[in-house]
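[Discussion] Sanity-checking designs against the backbone

I'm trying to build intuition for which residues belong where. Below is a structure token string of 187 positions. I'd appreciate it if someone posts a full sequence so I can compare it with mine line by line.
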């Protein structure tokens, strides 16, 4: 009987402690959540940005909406799609990159292109992947996701690849595919 009273007393004591320990001031909770949600962001629509070096146009970026987040690690997000056109020194289009989504991490000089990424180059080759990373410092693209490359009647597949900015040179890892060689290309 004494043990039962001790157990009931202990349970009652713990219950009272928990009841008073779990009290929240709703105003404080709202203030904290409002502070976390306030991120300075600039929104631009119908954006066209020209990248140039020494007055020579290198690339043009086109996006319907650009969100510029001004955080500790600033980044730009293009969640309604993006097209980047690269130009050769003669101002002719050398390659074109399209994606449904892109994010540029400003401090790292990295652009991540995601979902339905399609690249075309001057040779008429088409590169497709679900993700493509553009390293602006190294001036190259790479992907660690599956990629397909179509040219003429040939289709190559790979588990990853890298390419220079105009996609005139690329390397594929673990490539497979259907190649049709003409007499000039044969062994």
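Best answer:
Here's mine. Compare freely.
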């Amino acid at each position: 009987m004494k043990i039962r009273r001790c157990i009931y007393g202990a349970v009652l004591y713990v219950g009272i402690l928990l009841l008073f320990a779990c009290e929240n001031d709703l105003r404080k909770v709202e203030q904290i959540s409002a502070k976390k949600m306030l991120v300075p962001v600039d929104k631009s629509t119908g954006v066209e940005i020209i990248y140039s070096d020494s007055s020579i146009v290198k690339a043009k970026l086109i996006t319907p909406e650009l969100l510029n987040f001004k955080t500790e690690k600033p980044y730009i997000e293009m969640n309604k799609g993006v097209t980047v056109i690269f130009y050769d020194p003669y101002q002719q289009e050398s390659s074109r990159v399209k994606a449904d989504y892109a994010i540029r991490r400003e401090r790292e000089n990295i652009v991540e292109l995601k979902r339905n990424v399609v690249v075309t180059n001057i040779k008429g080759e088409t590169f497709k992947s679900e993700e493509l990373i553009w390293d602006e410092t190294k001036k190259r693209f790479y992907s660690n996701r599956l990629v397909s490359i179509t040219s003429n009647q040939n289709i190559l597949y790979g588990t990853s690849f890298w390419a220079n900015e105009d996609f005139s040179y690329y390397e594929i890892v673990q490539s497979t595919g259907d190649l049709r060689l003409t007499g000039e290309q044969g062994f």
